[in-house]
Amino acid sequence: MVKVRFAPSPTGHLHVGGARTALFNWLFARKNSGKFVLRIEDTDLQRSSQEMSFEILNALRWLRLEWDEGPFYQSKRLHLYRRMAERLVEEGKAYYCYCTKEEIEERRKASGKGRAWKYDRRCLHLTEEERKKFEEEARPKAIRFLVPEGMTEFEDLILGKVSVKNQDIEDFVLLKSDGYPTYHLSVVVDDHLMKITHVIRGADHIYNTPKQILLYKALGWEPPLFAHLPLILGPDRKKLSKRHGETSVLAFKQKGITSLAMVNFLAQLSWSPGEDRDFYTMEELVERFSLEKVKKSNPVFDLDKLAWLNSRIISSMKPEDLWEEVLPFLEEKIRKRAEERKEWVFRVLNLIKERSRDLREVGEKLERYLVRDFQYKEDALKKHWKPGAKEGLRRLLEEYRALEPFNAQTAESSLRNLAEEMGVKAASLIHPLRVALLGERVSPPIFDVVEVLGKDEVLLRIERALEELPD
RNA sequence: GCCCCCGUCGUCUAGCCAGGUUAGGACACCGCCCUUUCAAGGCGGCGGCAUGGGUUCAAGUCCCGUCGGGGGCGCCA
Predict the structure, then answer these.
(1) Smallest CA–C1' separation from A99: which nucleotide?
(2) Which of A9, A178, A323, A397 has a CA 20 to 30 Å removed from the CA of A447?
(3) How does pLDDT run across A80-93, given as a tens digit for each residue?
């Protein structure tokens, strides 16, 4: 059975790259009727935090990437990693290293090789006396993996064959001197114990894979299959990071991006179902997903496309669903008022969803329908509140007062008749009416607004405008 | 510095594996139509196979070089 995992380290927000990795794992699991495991890699004491773990969980829930097992915290499984590291030492496949970080740094510098320098295996060749001395001094010791000679290869499901000369790999640390495992150890132990079949992760891990395969072999375990996803780049073609602006997925949530837009956007970075469609439901994405269709090249993160997807998804949503999504963007007072007349709110949502880019906008617009004492917007007054506007509205108010039945059709013909009577264009009544009803420069078709607000509200809003707005 | 990967409109991509297309779609941008406004929608425009060579009757598709971009080389994950 297929089993995959998402294994973030809680050292920061869940950023778009991480979310994309989680999404692809989730899609792969669902597509293959497998399991999706969530594991928190909190073995870096300094940088990990509980709050970040919770936030990551939250972000995954928002994206609707529900996990089948976990979350497992590596900080609670330390004994497992230690035992395996000790075992490797006993078997001569790893060794204790007493070198301190400073000593290593010194030797690295002295070698003149800079980054090309590899650990010199000094502690592998320690004499019995030297070892005893270090032990008596109670020097902290780490455990290093003894990289064997040869060549390590694997078939990446996305990139194809990857091979590395073992001589390019240094004797990496398995267990830090503080007793905590490094990434390589914990990830291999856990992936094996959790019976992970496919490791799908970012391409920045590509050269960790040979190290980990070596570890699997040393422990006598069968390695899983690997798939490395291309990295998401910023507009300047550099690896996406904070300098490109907001990269935390929850920040997008706060900006009013729907999770479906986020998911579609992420899914279609370096992957395409090859159809002439703009977006899909989660189920449709699952149906179409396949690792073979993942490209090797790095995609660029394009905010415009996300924003557009979001606006299209919002306007395609059923008002009931849109309502749920807008809730967090409404003030308590407004929310309560809306709850009392849900059916009516749905009608309003149907009117405004078409021209909203994000959920914040939907919330702001909805509010104008729910409260009468909204602010008249400056740009609206500037553009549509011209001399003579008031006189027209005054006459329109009289017409509307007498109008029965009062609906979009009757309101429109009434207004048009009045315009003709006054010898003005209908627009010169329509625009002031828009300002009076909603205080905005733009709105849905105004007679639809008139109908949804209802006669009483329309009259009250016109009266308010006549009272408060200048001539 | 050393090792590796990638390269189709500005961006996301289809086409490449199994050579023969007027190189298709979408975002963005620009026009026009619709229209009371703004969107949406419709129509049209702009714009691309990084580059040089080779193989071939034929190359975006196969091979090599160059250039450009990315990644990795931690007691971080």
Answers:
(1) B75
(2) A323
(3) 999 999 999 999 99
| Residue A256: CB atoms within 10 Å | 23
Question: What whole-number distance in Å separates Cα of residue A117 and Cα of residue A99?
Answer: 15
Residues 396-425 of A with CB under 7 A from strand B: none
Instruction: Cite the active site residues of A.
Output: 242
Distance, Å, A446 CA → B33 C1':
22
Reply yes or no on whether the pLDDT at A343 is more than 80. Answer: yes
pLDDT score for A242: 78
- Asked if A376 CB < 7 A from strand B, the reply is no
pLDDT at residue A243 greater than cutoff 80: no
Strand B and A179 CB separated by under 7 Å: no
Q: How far is the CA of A357 from the C1' of B55 (A)?
A: 52
Residue A44 CB lies within 7 Å of the nucleic strand B: yes
